[in-house]
Write a structure and sequence with these properties.
Enolase-like, domain 1, single chain, globular
Length: 290
């Protein structure tokens, strides 16, 4: 049984979108294929006529500084992101997150765009991008547009991208300035390469001995990738001490909606362990701001 009938390899966005429009049957983009091919083989995905390989599309494989932002192409294998000095300099949490996605072999082919497009609330790359206040570039036949990162997600496994009509081109992240830093860490089963029990990314900006600004993302903290906005508000303008941390943790716990997973952890267990993870990530990001 054929898993697909036609396989196309466009080299630019125009060719890819034309292929989407002209496909005679169900059409899907494919990048690393580390999830999609398994889903097709194991019958977890509806039949597909045309696969459009995006790994050779020039616009989606760029990693460069554009003005005051870092652009990371959606079709870049995550291992290339891990090894790139620009990402290390401007988005250390993203480097750390990408370095924990699956295992080494998978990281050589799996893409950051695929990690995001699956719309899982605890995907490592997604959580790091959320803390870095990323914006997404989305392409369709009418043209390209920027989308606030949070708007890409509708629910667990549900993306706002128009199926068979739009492509996730890449991500824009603000360049890091002096006094700004980030960190990403996760809790997982020993030698685990699947989704984490819990992960956390924190971005901070320091003003002398006070936190000037903060962004906190935790996965899975709800049905979509979760920003702890109330905890962020409590950190701003405060010194980082035990009182500040406890207030921020209380706000995070009040806002987060941890879910139970039969294969990973219960909601109660996640609420129990988030304190240590959040404190570790917060303190590491703070030390990096100096």
């Amino acid at each position: 049984m054929n898993l697909w009938h036609e396989y196309l390899r466009p080299t630019n966005l125009s060719q890819a979108l034309k292929a989407f429009a002209e496909a005679p049957g169900p059409v899907l983009p494919i990048a690393g294929g580390t999830d999609l091919l398994l889903d097709l083989k194991q019958g977890r995905h509806s039949p597909v006529h045309t696969l459009v390989d995006v790994m050779s599309i020039a616009e989606m494989t760029v990693l460069e500084v554009r003005g005051t932002e870092l652009f990371v192409g959606a079709a870049l294998p995550v291992n290339r992101i891990v090894l790139d000095p620009l990402v290390e300099a401007h988005a250390q949490a993203l480097t750390e997150a990408c370095n924990l996605i699956a295992g080494p072999q998978v990281r050589n082919v799996a893409t950051l765009g695929g990690n995001v497009a699956h719309a899982l609330p605890a995907a490592d790359g997604t959580i790091a991008l959320l803390a870095h206040n990323a914006q997404a570039e989305v392409a369709g036949l009418p043209g390209t547009r920027r989308v606030a990162f949070k708007e890409l997600f509708l629910g667990p496994g549900k993306s706002s991208l128009k199926h068979g009509q739009e492509l996730l081109v890449g991500f824009y992240l603000p360049l890091s300035k002096k006094g700004q830093a980030s960190c990403f860490k996760r809790i997982m089963r020993p030698q685990g390469v699947a989704l984490p029990i819990l992960n956390c990314a924190v971005w901070l900006e320091r003003d002398n001995d006070h936190i000037k600004d903060a962004r906190i993302a935790v996965g899975p903290g709800g049905g979509t990738p979760f920003r702890a906005a109330q905890a962020e508000d409590l950190l701003r303008g405060k010194p980082l001490n035990e009182t500040t941390f406890e207030s921020a943790l209380e706000a995070l716990l009040a806002q987060a909606q941890f879910r139970s997973s039969a294969r990973r952890a219960s909601a109660d267990y996640r609420r129990h362990i988030v304190s240590g993870l959040f404190k570790d990530v917060l303190e590491t990001a703070w030390q990096r701001t100096f």
